[in-house]
Amino acid sequence: MKVLIINGSPRINGNSSKLVDELTNVFKKEKIDIEVFQIGGKAIRGCLACGYCLEKHECVIKDEVNQLAKSFDESDGLVIVSPVYYGSANGSIISLLDRLFYSSNFDKRFKVGAAFAVARRAGTTTTFDELNKYFTIAQMPIASGRYWNNGFGREKGQIEKDEEGLQNAQIVAKNMVFLMKAIKDAKDKYGLPEKKETKYTHFIR
Ligand SMILES: Cc1cc2nc3c(=O)[nH]c(=O)nc-3n(C[C@H](O)[C@H](O)[C@H](O)COP(=O)(O)O)c2cc1C
C-alpha cells in the first residue's frame, strides 16, 4: 500500500514539514510506502482552462503535476498538507491540486484522502474544508481524526509545541491506514460500485 503526501509549503523544514514527519512516522511503522512531494520554491502555475487535458488526460503544462498524477494513480491514499495564507490554502497548492484533479482521468474512487492546515492563528477550518473538497468531488472517503486537522506555529518548528495537533495527525494517519486496508479487502470481496458516466447539467438557460 502506498500514500502520496503533498506539502504545499515553500518553507523547507517548516511547520507543515514537521506535521508531515509525524504522519510518515506512523506510515513507516505500518509498513506503508510513502512518497512525499513538497512544492518548496517550485513555480507551479494555475490551470489555463485550455481543454488540452479533456482529450489527452494530462496537463499541457509540463511540470511536476503530470508525474504526481502517476504517483497518485499508484497510491491508495493522498494526504494534502498546506500552510494557511490569508485564511486559505496557499496559492501554489491550489494551483497544483486544480490541475492534478482536473487533468487526470484515472479512477480516484475509494482512494482515501486526508487534509491538514497549518497556521499561526486562524483560518485552519476554512482551509481544511477547502482541501477536503478535492476528495469529495472525486468519490474519495476521508480519514478523520479527533479535531478538524490543524497544527499551529509561526516560526519554523513552533508546531512541535502543539502536542494536540501532532497527536491528532498520528490518529488520522492510523485511521487512514485502517480505511485503506478495509477498502482493499472490500474491493477484493465485493468490487467497486458500478461507475456511472456523469450527466453534466450546467446552470444556463
Ligand atoms: C503570505 C502569508 C499569509 C499568511 N496568512 C495566515 C493566515 O491567514 N492565518 C494564520 O494563522 N497564519 C498565516 N500565515 C502564517 C503561516 O500560516 C504560518 O507561519 C505557518 O506555520 C506556515 O507553515 P510552514 O512553516 O509550513 O510554511 C501566513 C503566512 C504567510 C507567508
Walkthrough of the structure:
The protein has 205 residues and is of the alpha/beta class. The protein has a single domain (2-190), classed as 3-Layer(aba) Sandwich (Rossmann fold), CATH 3.40.50. It has 6 helices and 6 strands, in the order E-H-E-H-H-E-E-H-E-H-E-H. It has helices spanning 15-29, 52-56, 64-74, 91-103, 124-136, 163-190, and strands at residues 2-7, 33-38, 77-85, 88-89, 112-119, 150-152. Strands 1, 2, 3, 4, 5 and 6 form a 6-stranded mixed beta sheet that branches. Strand 1 (2-7), helix 1 (15-29) and strand 2 (33-38) form a beta-alpha-beta unit. Helix 1 crosses helix 6 and helix 3 (64-74) crosses helix 4 (91-103). The longest helix has 28 residues, at 163-190. The radius of gyration is 17 Å and the shape is globular. It starts with a strand and ends in a 15-residue tail after the last helix. The protein binds flavin mononucleotide (FMN). Flavin mononucleotide binds next to helix 1, strand 3 and strand 5.
Bound small molecules, by name, code or SMILES, are: flavin mononucleotide
Helix content: 40-55%
Order of helices and strands: EHEHHEEHEHEH
By CATH, the architecture is named: 3-Layer(aba) Sandwich
N-end to C-end Cα span: 47 Å
Count of individual helical segments? 6
- Structural class of the secondary structure composition? alpha/beta
- Quickly count the domains: 1
CATH topology, which one? Rossmann fold
Low-confidence stretches: none
Q: Please, what is the average pLDDT?
A: 97
- Bin the strand percentage: 15-25%
Main β-sheet description: 6 strands, mixed
